[in-house]
Amino acid sequence: MAKTDKIIIANWKMKIGIDESLKLAKKLKTKFKSLKGEFVVCPNFLSLLEVGKTLKASGIDLGAQDVFWEENGAYTGEISPEMLVEAGCKYVIIGHSERRKFLMENYEMIHKETKAVMNHEDLTPVVCIGENWDERKTDRRDFVLFDQLQQALSGLDIVGNQQIIIAYEPIWAIGSGTAIEPTEAEYAHKIIRLTLNDMFGMKIVNNNFKIIYGGSINSKNVKGFVGLDNLDGMLVGGASLDADEIFKVAKAVMR
To answer: Is 255 helix (H, G, I), strand (E, B) or coil?
Structure first.
């Protein structure tokens, strides 16, 4: 993936099973034949192998919704970075707000997961950050984003052309059906880039990082985000379950 390419990551969450995932993958394979840019689908773990087979040679990449920080061992129910690579994954979402909320994932865990994924050149971490409603109301967003980035990424050694994607997802907007104002997203992305510049230096940030937005994006509101500074793509949830809808979103972003 070229640094300048826009990326759309479709997070199917726990919304559809194996059969529906395969049907959706087949529709996407047909629709995305000629679209430029990078398109990634993240099905549930049970569907990864079959969806991967369906999308083979389609230009659509495979991603996972979560990962564990150890490569093997007695960790019941977990999946390692090596296993994801073996399954054909090129991307993995780390620290999604729903996992932070419902499964008590914290940024110590997110840091370890990101570090483990960075040991695999062919696997790109999509690290999620974002403030909740109370943090937004009390004007603590800037500090929250700074703190989350510090906890997730401090001490990581980024070499060569290794890529890291930062997904800004304001928790209060996810699943609401209403995205935040594009200017608000642009401001948050600016804070993220400035923090990354302080942590890693502008050269590494420009070469190795992408910043994307996630939070109730659909074909009706996506146009407001196109062309914003520091926006390299989208992490899309609900809208990604409809082939026509996600194609419209991707077409708007990747034009």
So the answer is: coil
